[in-house]
Amino acid sequence: MPEHVTLLTAADGGPVERDVSTGLPSDLLGLSAARLQALALLYALIFFLAGIFPALILPGDRARFLGNVVQWAPGVLGIVVAVALAAVIRRVPPARAMTLGLVFEIVSSYAIAAAEFGDPSGLEVHQGYMGLSWVAVWVVLFTIVVPTSPRRALLAALASVSSVSVVIGTLIAVGATSLRVPPALFFFGLIFPYLLVAGMAWVGARVVYHLGTEVRRARELGSYQLEEKLGEGGMGEVWRARHRMLARPAAIKLIRASSAGVSDQAARRFEREAQVIARLRSPHTVELFDFGIAADGGFYYAMELLDGLDAESLLRRFGPLPPERVIYLLRQVCHSLSEAHASGLVHRDIKPANVFLCRYGEEFDFVKVLDFGIVRAARGGTETSMVETHEERIEGTPAFMAPEQAMGGPVDRRADIYATGCLAYWLLTGGLVFTAENPIALLMRHAHAPPEPPSSRGPGPIPRALDDLVLACLAKDPEQRPQSARELALRLAEVDGLEEWTQQRAREWWAERMQAALA
User: Fold this and answer.
1) Confidence (pTM)
2) Which pLDDT score is estimated for 123?
3) Which residues are catalytic?
């Protein structure tokens, strides 16, 4: 799972919008907006089926229903408002959607009250009691399904339940009904019960609010506050986070306890790996800010938040790259790998999704190598003792896996050279070196099948020197590959016959293509 966040505009680096009145995390607030949309549609459907459909089906009721505006207008108004809210709810920020939801709660309650009591002939008092309106059920349901702060929930509930007393009181005041209700009966029959309903709604709102607060506190990892979940995979989740004291945003890779385990051995291995990774200083390696163990036993990395897109997304959107640009990007990958290899680390999962192209300060096409979370110490490396090896496990991505890695054999830095060759093949041709019907067959092809030259599959001419270098990286025998990332970078620089890919060309490409993609 990549430990980055794809941001396409610099403005996205700002804080995620939060509804301070609810105190809920932004992703839970987004889920609340989705529930509000579903609730509005449910309201419209039930109102139609219960309040309008029967009157239209029964011939005797149809004429009376359609002939009296008081009979059909409240239901039609409530349905129209509900459908309109459902149509716009996803087009506004979640915080604003919640405010619209409170307005809808009040308007929909008045529609229910008007539909129930708008016909004066239907008003009756049984033994001094008029019974509760469906408004009571609606208000309690709404408060539980659509969370907000207790204060706002109470105010909205009071305004909503007032619909019953307002509608009936208006009918009595204008003389539309012969019903006479003494003040005491009016209060205890039409006001006091609904004050109790509003109190129930307030209690429900407090429960939901405190649950949201507990979720927010549970998402505090060290000095970081998780704000928005941006992706998940087999190893855990990626969150956008902010430091509680610094303005700098971060991306956190959270490995839950259920998948990482909470054993002392796992914790020690995680800490050792994180310490080694944190010491990498290549500007082309994603920067690790912090790491630790969460309260639930899960592990987390806090890393820099990047502005750009990964190589996989780049090619799927824009197609294969010209050879000179591929060389420009691969040399930066080699810079990152060279330092990692010198520290005794093998990445083991070089692939397009882990190569991120950034707009980094004033530079464009600035590469960051990601997902050093599964690196292991290389055999014979200078710091082998710093990170434990587990040769019985095959780790990596089958489409970019060296033959020795695919067969579960000893792996050193030359496995990353092979994966870099697969990456170069992808960038030049837009396709994988090998394809197969399942992962096992794909691993077998990497172990035994000869690759086709990228020039035979690329959309444009590829220099012979670059063609041969990519095939050298893809050699089955590690001894026949470039022996280090530094050597590969030097051989890439020696490829001639191409127009140089400069910062000016990169800047022009980003200005033209990326802006067009965002338009």
Assistant:
1) 0.57
2) 59
3) 349
